[in-house]
Hints:
By secondary structure, this protein is α/β, with parallel strands linked by helices. The chain is built from 13 helices and 22 strands. Iron/sulfur cluster binds near residues 197, 204, 205, 239 and 275.
Amino acid sequence: MKNDAKFQMPSLKEAKLRRNLNIETIRYKTNNKYQNIGYGKTYSIFTYGCQGNEADSEIMAGILEDIGYTKSADPYDANLILLNTCCIRENAEQRIWGVLGQLKGKKREKKDMLVGICGCMPQEESATKKIIESYDVDIIFGTHNRHHLPELIYNAYNSNGKVVEVISSEGNIVEDTPKVRESKHKAWVNIMFGCDEFCTYCIVPYTRGRERSRNKDDIINEVKELVKEGYKEVTLLGQNVNAYGKDLGIDYTFGDLLYDLDKTGIERIRYTTSHPRDLDLKTMEAMRDCKSVMPHLHLPVQSGDNQILKIMNRKYTYEEYVSKINKLKELVPNISITTDIIVGFPNETEEQFQNTLKLVDEVKFEGAFTFIYSPREGTPAAKMPDSISMEEKHDRLNRLIEKTNAGYLEGHKRFVGKKVKVLVDGVSKNGSDMMCGYSENLKLTHFKSTDQSLIGKIVEVEVTEAKTWFMIGNLVND
Ligand code: 5AD
Ligand code: SF4
């Protein structure tokens, strides 16, 4: 590495220490020095991973347009290409190595192209080392540095080395960043950052840092602003939204936030992701009482076996999970529950896996993201010896998917013959005479119409058919 304008490497060990206790809220302002550095230039952002990354990309697009960049029509032919990455599982990373390989050739053709890599992957020491050694990347920055983007670009233009800035301890909360939102009727709203759970398989507490909650007034004002702009739906984001407010030392929880946001006039509120241990009664009551809080909960269970849950450091049992779900179903009878499940955790026995299948039957999930356990360097589980073959893990995954797919179908079937309210997203991929959107229970719903003026509106659809991945119905005319 030569002539580095800025060089700060990540460290998983440092991230674990949770040193920075003085989290402040700072207000973003464009620095005059960087005001027009993107003038006449184009950008594109490739986003991988979770909704948190999608929300971050909208902020980075906002920052780039604020300093003069415009979005490139061809994403591979931009003056600045950013890859906003995910490292939660090995295969997420594999995809990004592939894209970086592809961009090598593009960069050779277009000499003034800058390539930046950001998000979770650069927070891993080993990934950052590999990027520096093997790929032609100009800017490498982590999840805590995205608001420094103008300075990083400036430094990249004014140096002939790589610009690396990945801090391991979390940064401040940055408010008032510009945003270019992808949708005109649905918006992501971050309510907190980071995760303090330290599930033993998970890299997120290291890449995203300690839990930091945004001030409630900043969140409420953002939602009020979105209502004024005509937005219909917000999805509140955090790695563990149920821990909202804990770090602020105030007597105000996620449930309180739901009640307050319900008063803003936003028509639909969703949230993700929840942790079963922290899901409290107040939140469940808010789901019952607030008309805008949608009847869907994504509650990752990960495993149905108490021993595995313990080794995963999930801090709840099968019985506690089921009892929370039962309470929720009692308060919100119409609710749809979805989940995340990992199979093949180190040494998981067939019997332990059977407990997961039993739980899936008992809870009747209407959807699940299912994964084979993937060891992540630096996490405790990665050091656990594992006697289960990959073949066995794939077999378990297939058996699980068969069950969870049936759950998707059952979840759709229960709406056949009923009317559901759908927020229309656009023309459906199923055929140009169909449109689609999501129902209150987060069911993808297609209906016959070519009326594009319906996009962004909430319409009523009578469901006629249930498929595994979606429902079909007819528009109900008033
Ligand atoms: N291997 C497999 N799946 C994982 N997840 C998180 N870490 C891993 C891992 N190392 C899954 C969990 C989590 C979801 C976002 O990703 O199920 O809820
Ligand atoms: Fe990872 Fe567990 Fe935090 Fe979710 S709660 S981000 S699985 S450590």
